[in-house]
Amino acid sequence: MGAYIARRLLLIIPTLLGIMIINFTLVQFVPGGPVEQMIARIQGEGDVFGGFAGGGADATLGAGSENDQYIGARGLPPEFIEELEREFGFDKPPVERFLNMLWDYLQFDFGESYFRSVSVIDLVLEKMPVSISLGLWSTLIAYLISIPLGIRKAVKDGTSFDTWTSGAIIVAYAIPGFLFAILLLVLFAGGSYWQIFPLRGLTSDNWDQLSVGAKIADYFWHIVLPVTALTISAFATLTLLTKNSFLDEIKKQYVMTARAKGLTERRVLYGHIFRNAMLIVIAGFPAVFIGVFFSGSLIIETIFSLDGLGRLGFEAAVARDYPVIFGTLFIFGLIGLVVGILSDLMYVVVDPRIDFEKREG
């Protein structure tokens, strides 16, 4: 197992390198880069995209200008444009910029945001509590509810319990997360009915003055609605996955053999079926975790006015804040790959008979 883990760890390097090369190459062809964004801000246009929408002749440089690639740069001296390029590092060829970036990343130096004057690491650490709160609790609650419920549905397959729970699960899955979040706000955050939970934020304004117990209660009071909104879709998918996995195992020959030996249903279910049926559930853990932790939280963070990693990545992409984009991409990619290795280790924990080294041989 040690050799397998070592190989997987070594594979992280070319995988991350491939991810960075593809994304860095794609970014070179995307209009509205940092220099254009800065020019738009200097000229009071807010962002560069207004120029693409039809700024007309006033939004472009005159023919023959050496900086005609920058929309909206008319009136700015070429020396100033060149200074901006040097500041952002665009006076160097793309290959050199990419190699310099990789060298910095090897030293865990992710640079500084172009427009916030804050290091990427500090930005990530600042936003991390929100994303950890949403992702960790949503994933934990989804697994704690879905696995027992899925097992129960498999055991009671075809009964009224299975029927009405399946109906509830399908309805929950059909409701988009953002729509469910809005419904929760309307019902429980003072929208039209009850003012039970806060409307925004992760903590109250008087957080620093609260006692330890009050801080814990305040924290959970704030995350109830966003975590509920995030959990609903993951909960539905995971429950049906667990049920179907157990149903497949229940019909196999070894289960009938175990029953014929006189073992109790509980012993058959948790002693034999469980570790085999749970393999497919564990296999989906990295996708569930990463999806809820990062991608799935953007809309929820926006609706509940939470400043997490989802909004950070979105705002960086809109502003073409390349250090934040590539820094977070590298960090998130590394976390995703490590979680994949942990998922393989969980296979062995659930079923010690699995040996990845022999399978590869």
Which blocks of ≥5 consecutive residues have pLDDT under 50? 48-68
Rounded radius of gyration (Å): 26 Å
Task: Give the tally of β-strands.
Answer: 0
Helix and strand content put the structural class at: mainly alpha
Supply the number of helical segments. Answer: 16
- Strand percentage lies at under 5%
Mean pLDDT: 78
Shape: globular
Descriptive notes:
This protein is mostly helical. It is 71% helix and 0% strand. Helix 1 (2-27) packs antiparallel against helix 15 (322-350), helix 9 packs across helix 11 (265-283) and helix 10 (253-260) runs antiparallel to helix 11 (265-283). It is globular, with a radius of gyration of 26 Å. The model is unreliable at 48-68 (pLDDT under 50).
List the helices and strands and how they pair.
Blueprint: H1 2-27, H2 34-42, H3 49-52, H4 78-88, H5 94-106, H6 120-155, H7 160-174, H8 177-188, H9 212-250, H10 253-260, H11 265-283, H12 285-295, H13 297-303, H14 309-319, H15 322-350, H16 356-360
Helix pairs in contact: 1-15, 2-4, 6-9, 6-12, 6-15, 7-9, 8-9, 9-11, 10-11, 11-15, 12-15, 13-14, 14-15
